[in-house]
Design goal:
4-stranded parallel beta sheet; 6 strands; about 45% helix; Uracil-DNA glycosylase
């Protein structure tokens, strides 16, 4: 049994989740790009497919990849900070419960030992992956010093449209480089 199998069977916080546990994760030991997200949305919970929602549509657009490529576990490992839907809060989904990261993250990141690029999405993943994290905007602005191995992105949620409008440099300057970096890795795999 792999760590992915163990995670998919995890029920550690089942009773504390509004819809119960349904861990959602994707990957293989050969994955080359790791998407470090936050927590599954309700649609992801219901379909058990990571980023199977409006955020996923935008993320695939940012990466300029098809659904088939994105959902190929030999290319993309999709590893949220929490594996189950945390529930709804006042201004969107609740934060990922920290228990998943505490229990699984270190071992899981070692499992994906062929990763060439880690894409760190949103505040909670960035807090974990970047020691000097202050804000999503400040972390994302450091993209040139992070690449080619890691990059911070804002969450691709439609709720972040104001952030994207206010920070037009992101889609203008960062996305083309992200696409080029991603496609170089994908091309080497095929």
């Amino acid at each position: 049994m792999t760590i992915l199998d163990e995670i998919k069977q995890c029920k550690i916080c089942h009773d504390n989740l509004p819809l119960g546990a349904n861990p959602t994760i994707q990957g293989s030991t050969n994955a080359r790009i790791l998407v470090a997200g936050q927590a599954p949305s309700i649609n992801v919970h219901l379909t058990n497919k990571p980023f199977n929602d409006a955020s996923g549509v935008r993320l695939r657009s940012w990466l300029n990849v098809t659904r088939d490529v994105f959902y190929n576990p030999k290319i993309f490992a999709i590893v949220p900070m929490a594996f189950c839907y945390p529930g709804k809060g006042k201004s969107g989904d609740l934060p990922p419960p920290p228990i998943c990261a505490q229990k699984w993250r270190k071992t899981l990141l070692q499992y994906f030992n062929k990763v060439e690029l880690t894409i760190v999405i949103g505040q909670y993943a960035q807090q974990y992956h970047f020691a000097n994290f202050t804000s999503v905007t400040e972390q994302t602005k450091q993209w040139q010093t992070q690449l080619p191995n890691i990059i911070a992105l804002p969450h691709p949620s439609p709720r972040n449209r104001h952030w994207l409008e206010k920070n037009s440099w992101f889609e203008r300057d960062v996305i083309p480089i992200l696409q080029t970096t991603t496609h170089k890795i994908i091309t080497k795999i095929k």
